[in-house]
Amino acid sequence: MVALVQPGYSVARLLIIVARGEPARYTYLRQVFRSETVDVILDRRVTERRQLHERAGAERRRGHRRHRYLSKDLQEFGWALVRR
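^ that's the sequence the OP posted. Answer follows.
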């Protein structure tokens, strides 16, 4: 069996996404959560994927892919926490 993770390396289990307009918060959280179980990244999205004026096609997935909308947390708090 081949190991997918090198010995001594663990995969981050939590992801903190910081709003693009919060570079100081991003720097602070990177310093605070400097561990093997948390990754801190900046939100890379420029706009929401679906605009209100665009009609979405029929949903093919059987369940909800996203359980909550990160945009609300990013706007309200400046960051969002996601479990991987």
